[in-house]
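Minimal example, chain plus magnesium ion.
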Amino acid sequence: MDRKKLVTLWYFFMTILAMFYLQNYVLGSNRAEPISYSEMIHLLESEQIVAVEVNEQYIRGHLKSARPGGSQYVVTARMDTELASLLGQYNVEYKGIIESHLLANLLSWFMPMAVFLGIWFIIMRRMSGAQGGLGGLTAIGKSNAKVYVETDTQVSFDDVAGVDEAKVELQEIVNFLKQPDQYGRLGAHVPRGILLLGPPGTGKTLLARAVAGEAKVPFFSINGSEFVEMFVGVGAARVRDLFEQARKQAPCIIFIDELDAVGRARGINPYGGGHDEKEQTLNQLLSELDGFQPGQQVVLLAATNRPEILDPALLRPGRFDRQILVDRPDKIGRVAILKVHLKKVKTAAHFRIDEIAALTPGFTGADLANLVNEAAVLATRRGADEISLDDFTSAVERIVAGLEKRNRLLNPREREVVAYHEMGHALVAMSLPGTDVVHKVSIIPRGVGALGYTIQRPTEDRFLMTRAELENKMAVLLGGRASEILVFNELSTGAADDLARATDIARSMVMRYGMDEGLGLVAYEQPHGSFLAGLPEDHVEARKYSEATARDIDQAVLAIMKLAFDKATEILGQRRDMLTKCAQQLLENETLSREALLELVESDSPGPKLVEGIGPD
Ligand code: ADP
Ligand code: MG
Ligand code: ZN
């Protein structure tokens, strides 16, 4: 809950209390206590009454001193017409009045209420400050309390480390915001929306702020979850308002953090309710994105750690069409991040940062920032003057225990297996012609499922593949498992995805491409559109071949798989030393670029020479 709402809540609470107090005590003493007629006479006779008011129904006496109940007045029904003479006899002043109790009662509640409401309005206006104020109830959607505008974020690219690739891409945005004329010279315009993807804590928010800080433009930031908070329709109004404000202040940056909160794909809302608030908000966001003029110098940045649930419409060209991956840092990246955060604390003179980096595989920038702080806390508790390496190692131990559950950090043994597995893929790929070029090998866990990854980029778009190429591709896929068996002689679950993909290829070779001699030139399976054609998932095609053929197909698939696996094993067996060397290097660095890999392979290769993948690269 924000400040404004809190103040309002408190204010009304206090108001109600105050009104009760007013009613009971202040007005209460003004209110007459009903008594009997005889008592009134008695009071009169004992000269306790100073003045009397008489109307058609009541007689109201003003007492000399308050009664035990606190009221200064008594009232009784009017009965006697001879009262006047009696009153005269005792020398009491009296008069008759006609009053409306209803009006008086209403007024006694209504007047203070109006006063309090007035004060509330003034407070709220003060709080909204210069940003426009509260223009009546229609202004509920005004996002002025939610949008944070910073004219100077005071964050620069130097504060964000270990994400160099992302920085290079964002530098372009900075250049555009700084010199839009220069940029538009040839008619180019910046992408409208840039989406930062990556696990939590890798510095996405920090990067966005750094872009604004570098370009020295206002930074409008809002959290996706804030769009969808209040009443129905407010989210959409807020989006409109946000963009309106931003356009007025162009050049500027709008940053939507946690985009997944509003950008969740329509129709997969787990809480039911189809066209709900979120959908309206998302639609508004989409239409604002489309409403951007190329000339408008408003750059839209967004961040998410769950790109897979985003509505595809958000990712279409012209919307968030550029996506920048902000991944967990590798060892070199961690050194750089630690340097940034160690600047703020006092460390021992001879301090090996790379030792800490080596201790923290899988840590994100936020984890490292936390680590530095923990270490500082430990050192302080120790009463030391500076932070030592020991403080860091104990801090790492503390944090890792917590992280292991959260971040699926790998233990050393698992890391080794993954390193050999990934190097298996990479070496087989580099040894066989016609396979895609290996760009990067990594053992930094990424996303769900994959423990490491080998990025192969196709060198050209392929429409036709030969049988040999398909077999090579399978060998690459099975290289991971082959390597594990070769080195550890053990099976692990890490190859499940590879196996599934290789099997897929083998089945297609047999059933669709007619590539198996035994089964011959027959298509056993019609090519089907699969997902794209929108077939239901449980769609089962009628089988058009016999039991016996089915068995043959299975055997053929098995044979092809075995062939590919043997090929991978053979390649790796011949390069056993190279495999070990590369895997150790990978363990050390966590990622190996194509250049690093080639260098390692070429430096001294006792095994047969490697053939680089063909193609222009
Ligand atoms: P995200 O938005 O990706 O979840 P944040 O940007 O909020 O992560 O990062 C949280 C904090 O972690 C930052 O304020 C910063 O102190 C630290 N941090 C994260 N990544 C980095 C990085 N690459 N370099 C320096 N500090 C980082
Ligand atoms: Mg964030
Ligand atoms: Zn694999």
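DSSP finds 21 helices and 14 strands in the chain. The radius of gyration is 39 Å.
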